Structures are given as structure tokens and as C-alpha cells.
Batch of 2 targets.
Target 1
Amino acid sequence: MNPSEFLDVADRLKSSEHEGDRRTAISRSYFAFYNLCVASLRERGVTFKSPIKGDVHGELLEYFNRCERRFAGSLRDLRLARNNADYDMAATVQNSASELYHKKARDAFNQFSALTSQQLENIARCITHVVYTPRRQDS
Amino acid sequence: MEYVQTQLGERKPGIAETPYTTNVASFGIAVPGSTVSYIGVSGLNLPFPAVSCPTPFLQVHRQGQVNRASGAELAQKQSTETISDRAIARSALITLAKEIVRETLGSCLLDMRTELKEDPEDVGHVTVCLVLIVRGSVEEIYELDRTLQARLIDRIPERDFPFIGVLYHFE
């Protein structure tokens, strides 16, 4: 499946009158971008080393932080918004927020998609030189 | 995640008695005209100073010394020699990030608070989240966010960049 389908789902739900739809829109927006990045990098030989599946999110963030920071900021903040949408039931997620995060994800998605093959190769090559060890705030 | 907050100079039950926490509790960050608190994260024993009001200066009292510097100046002095040094540097980075947010969002920013967010699916990965209450159209905030991201990339050191994020709530 093309991860852009998640963006389409988010587009349909982002302005819904139902908060569950708006939260889902934010979540799908994040995963559209995340899956695009992971799949594209794997195609170019990047191996994610995290033993814990969830940690791949942090690993990808670290790779972008070292090799292409403009995507690191988008990934980090979309992840925060997604976690807020999926786990924080006390929060209120308005239309404006879901529309903003959909727009932000679509922008990041389009920017990443627009990378040339050579640019992607360069990022993948850079990542192979990153020694990834899961980092924690207290390290 | 449990948060334990304490006023400057006080300890409340719930804060783990570890060298880490003790170290950080041994200094205070005083912001003129504001209440300052520390946040400890249960299980991580990771205290973060939460500075809850706009301020151009930090006063750091540590081992009898008083330093006065802007967030940017303190951030430049980031040291990794000791845990308490790192905690001070991080508090300075948070202040710096907040300064960048204020100068970028201007009157669209109604309020800002600092929260520690532990990733629910990546236990131990904690992000300092600047929760921004904003006023404006989606388009306006989107454009301001693009500027903000560029400034954060320029001014937040690489090692800290993944751990300081922003979350928007509209008025």
C-alpha cells in the first residue's frame, strides 16, 4: 500500500464533527510520513537496528537528526501530536489542530517524495555511518 | 507517567532519593516574579526544571554561586561533565527554545507551558514538549511553524534537538 493513502484518510477525517475522526486524522498523518520514510530508506539498504519495534520511531528520528534535520523536526512534532491524539483522552483535539497536522504531514511527505534518487542515496549513505544507540534523556 | 512537583527548596514525598535528584535539588533556578518548580519523572529519576513564565534571564544558584545569563549564553556553556551540569544546560536549552517560540509566534502565542512527554510506545524516550496555545488561522500557524522549525534547527544543538518538541492547541 502506498502510505499516501493514509494522508487521504486523514484528509477525509480532519474536519469531522467527531473528535475520534479528528484524532484518527492526526494519527494517520503521522504514519503516512513515517511509513514513507522507513520504506524509502529500507529500499536503499538502511537497516533499522532497534530490537524493540516501537523504538524504530526513535531510531528514524535520530538518523534524520544526524543526516537531514528538516525532516527530524517534522517527525518529532508529528509523533508528539500523534501520541497526544491516540493516548491522551483528557485532551481536546479541535478541527484546527487536526487540519494543521495533516497539512504539516502532507508538506513533509511531499518534500521527502520530491528528493531525488541521489539525495536519498546520500541520506542512506550518511545513515550507515551513524552508530545508533537508543538515547534517553538521562544519558 | 507520574509527575511530582515541588516548590523551590522544598521536597515532597514521591521524589526519588537518588543522587541524581539530590544533585538537581541542590540548586535552584529562580525566575523573577514567577513560581519555579521541578518535575521529577517517576522511574527515570529525571528532574526537569519547569519555568512557567516569560523571562529573559535565569538565575542559577549552585554551590553558593550565582550566575546570571540569558538562555542562549547558558546553552552555549552546555557541559556534559556531570549530571547536574547537564540538567542546568537542558534548562537553559528549554529557556532558549521558549525564547525562539516567543520571538517567532509573537501575538499568535497566547500561552505556553512545558510538559515532559514519555513516548507510550517507546518507554524511556522522553521529550520536553512546549505546549503552545495559539490564536490564528491554520494557514497562519502553519507558516509560523515553518519559520519556528528553521530557527530551532539553527539554534538548538544537535544532541538536544530530538528531545525538544512543540505541540499546538488552538484557542
Note: Chain B touches chain A through 32 residues (CB under 8 Å).
Target 2
Amino acid sequence: MGLFRSIASKVRQGLEKTREVFVASVRSLLLGKRLDEGLILQLERRLIEADVGVKTTARWIDSIRADFKAGRIDSGDHVLAYLKGELKRLWPEQDRELASAPRGPTVILVTGVNGAGKTTSIAKLCSALRKGGKSVVLGACDTFRAGAVRQLEVWSERLGVEVVKGQQGGDPAAVAFDACAAARARHADVLILDTAGRLHTQDSLMRQLTKIRSVVAKQIAGGPHEVLLVLDATLGQNALRQAEEFTRAAGVTGIFLAKLDGTAKGGVVVAIKEATNIPVKFIGVGETPDDIQPFDPEAFVEAMFAE
Amino acid sequence: MFDRLSDAFHGLFRTLSGKGAISEANVRGAMGGVRAALLDADVHLNVVDTFTQRVLDDALGMKVVEGVEPGQQIVKIVHDRLVELLGGTPETGGATPGGPALASDHIPRMTPGPTVVMLCGLQGSGKTTTAGKLAAHLKKRGRSVMLAAADLQRPAAVEQLEIVAQHVRDEAPGSARVEFYAEKDRVAEYGKAVNVAVGVCRRAVDQARKLGVDTVVLDTAGRLHVNDALMAELKQVQGLVQPHLVLLVVDAMTGQDALHSAKAFHAALGIDGVILTKFDSDTRGGAALSVKHVTGAPIRFIGTGERLDAIEEFHAPRIAGRILGMGDVVSLVEKAQEQVSQEEAERLNEKLARGQMTMDDFLGQLKTLRRMGPMKQLLGLLPGVGSMLKDVHIEDRQLDKVEGMINSMTKEERRNPAILNMSRKRRIAAGSATRPDEVGQMVRQFEAVSTLARRMSSMSASEKVRAAREMGRQGDAMLPGLRGMPGYASRGSTHTTSVKDRFKKRKR
Ligand SMILES: Nc1nc2c(ncn2[C@@H]2O[C@H](COP(=O)(O)OP(=O)(O)OP(=O)(O)O)[C@@H](O)[C@H]2O)c(=O)[nH]1
Ligand SMILES: Nc1nc2c(ncn2[C@@H]2O[C@H](COP(=O)(O)OP(=O)(O)OP(=O)(O)O)[C@@H](O)[C@H]2O)c(=O)[nH]1
Ligand SMILES: [Mg+2]
Ligand SMILES: [Mg+2]
């Protein structure tokens, strides 16, 4: 809990700025507009274009339309308030906090498909935790991809933390084992494990993830305390399958939604929350360690209708 | 990947084909479903609208052909339009007007050289990996290649490409030269290396010219299409080195945003082609349609894995066929042909027919099949299998076991499994970390398969299909490798050792 707060305060400022931009462009579509069938259809298009998905969009639009016909709502402002309410209900604040161990190192296992942004997101988490006064150890469990270990190592050098690594092509579970031991020996507050990108359709690699998880569980009581699935915000509906499969293999506890600084809206996380109940905890908005923000459902809705 | 889209179409046309004739109402009804299916497949909304309107117009103007189900006729229209949208058949689609002609291997060779290929795209789309695949592709065709590291900002991006270049040198088939170019001292933190890539690219091309390298592949840094400074950098590179081929690398799992990013890259650079990566996932792949729609540039390759050889040509008719659940038999056959020589195939067929298949042959086949690619991916190529597939759990561990058991058998035992008594089975089990009863089971299955194979060799094609299906129904009891379907190859689950095999799938 403390972890999340310290991160949140560091990034609140950045968030305010983002929000101003969002509000400005939401205004053009919704605020101060009279609600009519034309606006509802426009809204529907926006939701689809935000990757919310056909099913969830239909549900929301049906309910807006019903309220409109019954005379309960009649302006764009109402609609925005309705959607914000929906999302806040979907993601209560306590769900968005980073879990932490009562004693000993908190272990965060970071997973996701290829190129989603895992390694970079780890640098961001690490930086935020360091700023909050936490000591961090990193574990380089991506022993497969060319240059992956070196990439994490560069970040660890820049951020001034220790990284535990193994042999290229070696067993990632063995690296996880060593990393747990190192984190315990150093009395680190947090251990973050990077893993190789893998598609959720690759059975053997998903099993490998399960194995990493169970190695951690044996080494550190209650670990991994947090299993973050890094999702690329540009992903379409396939992200839903990813969330399901990674949860099955590794027990995902939260989503890190990366690359929200582009034009993609990442609306698929709504469908994911409905289907799997996995909350979004952080968003990534750039390539530097500072480009992390706690997830804010209200800002997220506004961004969905931004140009 | 397109599997679920084809399911959706299947459902639609089943309802449609029940009805006697095509009426405006039932076509419109069906189009609503097509629309939802395409959106679900991540095709961009605008593209979906254009597409469904065209199909609707065609379908309404369609004369009912005597003896052909109206549903079938609409399937054909949807298929034809899909092919058209994806880039047409190789004869009709292809090169952008004024651009380089589309050579059969998709990377035309320029004279005077070097041919310069620039890869660009969003962060993490697969540029660096694809650079390696293209290098392997060229090396195989006897063309020397230089990989140039133009990503100076992402940590270890240069090292990544350097390792990839070494892999291509060591493991990819062919003997052509593979050069690597980098200026490591110019690497800088994010935002501080803007425009440095311009000079690096120019010097790389100069160097390639000096060395007489056939093709240079520039691996640029990932960037957002809305990052003006970095987009300007790419334009500068383009202005200075005048790449012959600017290829946009796009993640096939991308959603609606594919349209925006591709549009922006195209507006800035005028891209000559698209490479869609991560097609080995189960994405429905609608991004392919969106990107093609806004750029008009041909999709030249698809990436189907992390290995150097996991790259394939893009064939619009086949992909459209896949979308519609017609299967992609051509790809499957091509894959098989790449792996098995004609004589080899004939020799095996003869053995099968005579019932002389040995465990060695079987092991060989199993290995060949597993080299062809992941099981699920291959099954997806077969007609009708796509929709069944998602419920089938393919156990690659099982295949590992089978390989392990046969590897632990002596020559004599492989030739004549009948001699396997309990102590032999125990020895094999110990050698392959299995149980003696598993060994026994495997041998019984092998015998059943070889009997069936003998019977099948005298059957007609349709009888074969029926027999194979019959076998499939017996479920897990059968050996997957000979169910008429290929085995599952994956990172970290293979036992093969030749150089070629190592190239095919590096251990993970
Ligand atoms: N614009 C932007 N780029 C990001 C963000 N997060 C990561 N990236 C970039 O995305 C690319 C891939 O990020 P990585 O962290 O290497 O991704 P990964 O999931 O570790 O990749 P693999 O280990 O290869 O599977 C890099 O170029 C990152 O700089 C983000 O929030 N915004
Ligand atoms: N499964 C699969 N993975 C792929 C494919 N192509 C690339 N990858 C993986 O995707 C991840 C990102 O690939 P990179 O080649 O590093 O991507 P990039 O575009 O160079 O990334 P940046 O330089 O950070 O922008 C790596 O884990 C690759 O192994 C593919 O076709 N299939
Ligand atoms: Mg990584
Ligand atoms: Mg790269």
C-alpha cells in the first residue's frame, strides 16, 4: 500500500497536465452538447475506435440510449458522467494499489507478449520505487531474446540498482531462484523479475512461466505478491485472450498498460476487466523511467473521447 | 490467427444458406454480422464500413445462379472483396505505382548496389528481429547483407542487432557475407540522440558500397507516429540515403490504432511495403486489412515467430481463404515440400505401403513435422480445422516424450519393437524419463499407426480423409506425429542437433 502511495504522489503532477489536454478535446465531442441519436452513434464509433470491443460498446450504448429515451439524460455531460461512473465502479481505488509483502521482499513478476514494454516498464517501476525510498533488486529472467539481459542491465546501471542475471539461453527459473536469494540476502524491499516475451499460445513457454512463479513461491513466502501483465495499448481484442492465458499460467494480479502516449486508447482493458476482473494499476506514457502514472479511470474515459 | 473470424463467417453463412433466395433483408442481416465479425477481428471501423458497403452492393446486384446456394455465392463475394482489399492476387496487386517492381523474393536487387532497405515502425513492433530475418532470407539467396544499427536510443538496441547479425552469420543457411555496422560511441539516452541516426545511416551505406555488399538493412529506433522530432529524423535519413525500400513493420495484434499509425508513417515517408509480425499468435489479424487500406502498400512478408526463419511471403488469397475458413492448404503443402525432398517422400510412401515403416522412419518423420512449425499454427492452415482447434489442447510434452523414448531404443529394438520385454522397456523408460507402461503404449500406438498407414496407401483421397478422421477421434491414444498432422515445434522442446536444425529453432 505504501508503495503505491509513494509512486502516486510522484506522478500526480504529470497526470494533472495530461488531464487538461484530455478535457479540452472531450469538450469538443461531448461537453455542452445536446444528446440525440446522432451523438449516440458518434459515441459508439469512438468507443469502437478506442478498442473497447463490440460487446462492451453495445452494452454501454444500449444503456445510454435507454436512459435517453426514458428522458433520464439529455446532454453530453450526462453521458460523460455516466461513463466515468461505470469505470470507477469497474475499478475501485483499492484494486489499483500495488500489493506488498508484510515482511521481507515484495516480489513483482512482470510478464507479457513480445515487445509489449515489459523491460521498460520495470525501469519505470524501479525508478518510482527508488524515489519512494525503497531498495530494489532486479532479476533478468529473459535469457532468450538477443540483448535482453544487457537492456535490463543498462537500466539498472542508470537507476543504481543491482541486477541478478544468469547465462544466455539458461533456465529462467534458475535466475528467478538466484534473484530471490539475492533479494533476501540484501534485505531488499522489492524484487522485480523481468521475463522473456512469449505468446499466450505457446504452451511450453507458458508452462515455463508457471515454473518461474512456483520457484518464487517456494523461495519467498507469499510471493510473487504482484504479477503484472504488461499490455501494449495499441493491442486490439487479442489482449483479452492474453489476459486470460497469462492469468491461467501465472495468476496475473494487475495490468501495466504501456504506450498510452501514442494515439491508441487501450480500451480493451475495459473488456478485460469485465471478463477477468484484472485491474489496471499503472500506465506507461513514454520511454523514460519517469513516464509512469497510476491508472486513473476518469482520465482514462476522457482520453477515450479525445481526438 | 484468423481462426475466429472464420468461425464468425461460418456461423453467418450457415444461417444464410438455409434460405432459398437472396433477399435484400437477409443480405442486410448477414452484413450486420459480417460487420461485427470484422470489428471483432480488429479491422478499423472505417475500413469495415467501406468493405461491407461494397459487399452489400455486389450481393444485391447478384443474379441467383441456378443450382448454387445463395449463401455460397455471398461467400464468394466476401472472399473476392477480401482478397482485393488485402492486396489482390500476385498478378493484380503488388508494387506501388512508380515504386520498385515486386520481385518474386520481395526484395528487389538494385543496380548499382547496394540495395538499401529501411525498416521503421512503432516501438516493439519487431523491427530488429525482422532485420535479422530479412538478412537470413537474403543470405539464403546468396546475397550479401549489412545490418546497420540506427537505433541509438533504446538501451542495448545496438547489442541486440549485433547478436542477431552473429546468429545470421553462424546459423542461417547460405554462405553469403553478413556485415554489421554500428557506431557504439554515439549511443545516447532517450531524446538525446535525435538526428544522430542520420549520419550513422549515411556512413553505413558508404561502408556497404565500399565493401561491395549487396543489401543494407537499416534498423531504426521505434517511434510514435505523433513524435514530430523522431518522424523528422526518419525523413532526413530517407532524404540523405534514399532507401530503395521503406518497409513499415507492424504488429499483427494491433487494434484500431493500426490505421492511424500506418497512415502517419505513410504520409511522412511514402512506405513501399508492410511486414506484419507476430502472426504466430491467435490474433484475428484485422490490422492487415486496415494497414493495407490506408497505405495501399503491399504486405510483403509476415513474421511467424522469433526464430530467424520465421518469415513468410504474404498471399492475399490464402489469408482471405483463412478468414473464410476455407483453409490454407497451399501454404501447408509448400511447407511440407520445403522439408521433405521428393525422393525421400517416395521412399517413405513405398515403405508405408509395404508396411515396412520402422521406428527410425517414424522418428525421422516426427522430426520433420516438428521442424515445420508450431502445431497449432499448422493445423490452422487446414480447411475446417481452424474452428475445432481452439478446444484442442496439443501436448508438445507428449511429442518430447515420444522422441525421447525412441532415442533411448537400440537399433535392434527400433527395427523390431516386438522384442521389447519388460526389462528393455524399463531401460528405455529410465533413459527417457518416462514410465515403462508409457513405452508399451507408445509401441502399441506405433503398430496401430503403421497398420493404418499400410491400409491407407491403397485408399482414395476421400477415404484417407475419413480414415484419418476416424483415427483422430480416438483422441489422445494416437501418436500425434502420424495423425496426418504435423508435430509441435517450440523453443526449448526439441532434441534435434544438426546445424540446420539449430537454425530452425534455437533452444530457449
Ligand atoms: N512510447 C512508448 N514506448 C514504450 C513504452 N513502454 C515501452 N516502450 C518502448 O517499447 C519498446 C519495447 O519495450 P521493451 O521494454 O523492450 O518491451 P519488452 O516487453 O521487454 O520486449 P521483449 O522483452 O522483447 O518481449 C521499446 O522501444 C521501449 O522503449 C511507453 O509507455 N511508451
Ligand atoms: N512471436 C513472435 N515474436 C516476434 C516476432 N517478431 C518479433 N518478435 C519479438 O517481439 C519482440 C520485439 O521485437 P524487436 O525486434 O526487438 O522489436 P523492435 O521493433 O526492434 O523494438 P524497438 O526497437 O524497441 O522499437 C521480441 O521479443 C521479438 O523476439 C514474430 O513474428 N513472432
Ligand atoms: Mg524485455
Ligand atoms: Mg529494435
Note: The first helix of chain B runs from residue 3 to 17.
